Amino acid sequence: MPALRRVVARFDHVEPVAEDDCQGVELGFRVTSPRFGAERVDDFALLGPELTVPAVEGIGKVLRILRAARIATPRDAFALAGRAQGASDLLERALGRDFALEVKPRSRVRFTAWTESGVETVDDVSDVVESNQGFLVMRHGGRFPQRFERAAVVRRQTETRRWFELVGVERA
Predict the structure, then answer these.
(1) Is-contact 29 9, C-beta < 8 A?
(2) Which of 15, 46, 68, 104 could form a disulfide with 24 if both were Cys (CB 3.0 to 4.6 A apart)?
């Protein structure tokens, strides 16, 4: 499990995302701590449209920011579910404030193979084993590995996306 890191950052961006299958708010913080290794911490608080476990986690992020900014939270926190604009309006009052963030470094590896029959992409890769016969792509979560024959692969690429997941928010 990656170690948690603490960083001081200024809350400078909030934008509602209101689509049929996704309600939430984009959160953006400009890092003010020296030697952190990144200029920004961006995150997304999913708010629904239905009350699910990820939506409850998103509501928790919104509430932690509001409490750290000393802004009154709604009486019924679950009323924020499916209300991206309402949550964004509340969070706009916290813009420009400094927070002590607790973040977790995260990454995701993707393997892409261009073959004669098309392009195949494998997400959540844990390891790629290369042999004379081909490539064996191991995946996280115990899912069955995928094999690509070397003769069929014209080109291949492994890419890594890194970000910081917002875990905790406190007043700076």
Answers:
(1) yes
(2) 46
